[in-house]
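Rotation project, supervised by the postdoc (A.L.). Task for the rotation student: set up a whole-complex structure prediction and record inputs and outputs verbatim in this book. Inputs entered:
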Amino acid sequence: MAKLTIDDLKKIKEKVSKETSLRDGKANVKITVHMGTCGIAAGAREVMNALMEEMAQSDRQDIKVVASGCLGMCSSEPNVTVEIEGEEPIVYQHMVANKMRQVFKRHVLQGEVQTGFALARI
Amino acid sequence: MREISLHIMDIAENGITAGADWIQIVVDEARNENRLKIEIKDNGKGIPNTMVDKVIDPFVTTRTTRRVGLGLSLLKAAAERCDGEFALTSEPGKGTRVKAIFQYDHIDRAPLGDMASSVITLIAGNSDVDFVYIHIVDGKNFTMDTRDIRKELGDISLTNPTVIHHLTQSIKKELGRLKQKK
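Outputs recorded:
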């Protein structure tokens, strides 16, 4: 039975050690990709993939990504909630990979809420 | 669902919602038997005997956001549509096992799809859960156990994006190897 190990584990460890030397382990940002049956059927996995790729390219160490259940707004799935410390949570709707990248780059990294994709406040 | 791997992701999430911190996914492409078998086991709180037959009903759910839970009924329908079988067993306090079998070459069988992405998505989004993923193709197999990987990583988090990226590539490579003819 072949067991899977990560190739180049040493290289990864070196790379990651350099990146994390400044980190204090606190997560200032939490991004929740909603993965209920509705979200999955609507394409949440691709949104998550895009998010993980963006995370790998960014050097931020304080962002936590979580997969959670359905919010109850199934018709607007995939939904993504972005919570930045000290700010109110923003729920993004009808997400796709490209929108996720934009939200990550502009909202998460630069603080600019992408109101065009967000759930309108009543 | 468009891919069977999405069903797998969905049912695994059920286990996590039930409090599991260990999920085992087995995909067995027994092409020589013309069967595709998938199994998802978890160590969550399980389902009481009185509910086991009811959970397959889409209008029975533990969700509070909606009164409909489609995951199990969609998977059951998908399997039965392909001359297959569906079975759910559970032991309260121990865990639940969901099995689905499909006729491999059935015209209505959805593709297995991107298993690597589905497994990685589960790992990336649930940092406190351990996953064992076993993929078998005509008897050849490989196993991925996040507990082993965590040990190898030491201090480094399993959900670190660099690790996730490399893990994805490793799974894809192993899957490619499995599918190659000898």
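Student's summary: Chain B touches chain A through 49 residues (CB under 8 Å).
Supervisor addendum: Chain B has a mean pLDDT of 93.
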